[in-house]
Specification:
By secondary structure, the protein is an alpha/beta fold. The protein contains twelve helices and 15 strands. Strands 7, 8, 9, 10, 11, 12, 13, 14 and 15 form a nine-stranded mixed beta sheet that branches. A six-stranded mixed beta sheet has the order 2-3-1-4-5-6, with helices on both faces. Mean pLDDT is 95; it is low at 20-24. The protein binds 4-hydroxy-3-methoxybenzoate.
């Protein structure tokens, strides 16, 4: 055995041991929640952590005789760090479950560790379709970009939008959004004049928007990750794109509830498709939004928060179903097939794909009581990830 494969074997056996050691720990059930609490995607970490803590405050910290311990780690939005933290959580802390994952590269960096240690890993934020295929231990409670994008491509040509330019962040979820929006728009008789990609790190949208202006599409379709939407909106308006007759459309990441209310009236009328709006008109959501605000100095929950909240529910119910005695495989089995009402609407964890099936809503930015909201005006029910059938 050479040194490298020896090291590999050592890491594998350490991970395998860590997996069984978790069983031996009697009264504590540990959830390792890895999030970007600092760095470019810090708003996602803040939202998911707040929601996880709210879920625990509302549902108690003892399940099936086990005391739930939430261990939050900041990966600083750096995937290598996510991986290192996951390894520490598995080997040293002997966590029963991993969770969080603010961006796709962070989830992908952790896939092999989850697989080797047989640790279920609940993806609460990241949304590239292929993530759940990278490890059989991934279960997703966020959404996928193909899921969110195709409905908008069905809506657009029926509403006078035939020629579109796409503008996406140049990584997993952006590529998914671009491809699935475009394929569906072409299928519906529309046209994509150009597909532009901006770097994920410190993007400058200005040169791209100038190009869009010159191309004069009916609309600009945008995907940028949560936290970057306000910058796009600002530059879109500053360049007078709306006055030039170009509409802004996109997945709901761009009119993120975390930032929407600070975007100003220029955001009014923007149509997006997504799985969650803080304005979703259900009794359960009203209660969720109110409790979230109360616990977080008035902060409005966004789609990341709901992914964290529902992810905790999936973990709690898996622990309950396995009566506190199940290892990773038993917990994973108990996560598959869960079906329940979320603040976003009814959701279902597809047992085959471990991915979420949920409603996708068409929404328009509207002012209600002096505040900007994504108000839902149509719904496509029980949408599976279209990325899985490709
Ligand atoms: C991802 C997808 C991240 C959608 C996002 O915000 C988002 C991802 C941080 O998969 O990296 O809105």
């Amino acid at each position: 055995m050479n040194k490298r494969s020896f090291m590999h074997a050592l890491v594998c056996s350490t991970l395998a041991l860590a997996g069984s050691a978790a069983l031996a720990q009697d009264n504590v059930f540990k959830i390792g929640l890895i999030l970007p609490m600092t760095g470019q995607q810090a708003s996602t970490g803040r939202q998911v952590e707040a929601a996880a803590r709210l879920y625990m405050a509302q549902n108690g910290d003892t399940v099936a005789g086990k005391k739930i311990q939430l261990i939050v780690k900041d990966d600083t939005t750096v995937p290598d760090m996510t991986k290192r933290l996951a390894q520490e959580l598995i080997v040293n802390d002997k966590v029963n479950v991993l969770a969080g994952f603010g961006i796709t590269p962070s989830a992908l960096a952790t896939a092999s560790l989850a697989t080797q240690s047989k640790t279920p890993a609940v993806v609460m934020a990241a949304a590239t379709s292929s993530i759940t295929e990278a490890s059989p231990y991934f279960v997703r409670t966020s959404f996928t970009l193909p899921q969110a994008s195709v409905s908008l491509a069905d809506w657009a040509p029926k509403n006078g939008i035939k020629k579109v330019v796409t503008l996406v962040s140049d990584y997993g979820p952006g590529i998914d959004a671009e491809r699935f929006f475009k394929d569906r728009l072409l299928f519906n008789g529309g046209q994509v004049l150009e597909s532009l990609r901006v770097p994920l790190r410190n993007p400058d949208f200005a040169p791209f928007l100038q190009k869009v202006r010159d191309l004069k599409p009916d609309a600009l379709f945008v995907f940028v990750p949560s936290g970057a939407g306000a910058a796009v909106m600002k530059q879109f308006l500053e360049r007078g794109m709306d006055k030039a007759g170009i509409k802004l459309i996109g997945t709901g990441d761009v009119t993120d509830d975390d930032q929407l209310n600070d975007m100003g009236d220029g955001a009014l009328g923007v149509v997006t498709s997504h799985h969650y709006s803080a304005a979703h008109p259900s009794a359960l959501n009203k209660k969720f939004v109110e409790a979230f605000r109360k616990a977080n100095k008035g902060m409005r929950p966004n789609f990341m928060a709901v992914g964290g909240y529902d992810g905790m529910r999936v973990i709690y119910e898996a622990l309950r179903a396995t009566k506190g005695v199940g290892g990773g495989d038993a917990l994973l089995a108990a996560m598959k097939g869960q079906i329940f009402e979320s603040p976003r609407g009814p959701i279902f964890i597809d047992a085959q794909t471990r991915d979420i099936v949920q409603n996708i809503y068409l929404r328009k930015v509207v002012k209600q009581d002096g505040q900007l909201y994504n108000v839902e005006f149509d719904v496509i029910k029980d949408v599976k990830d279209p990325g899985k059938s490709h």
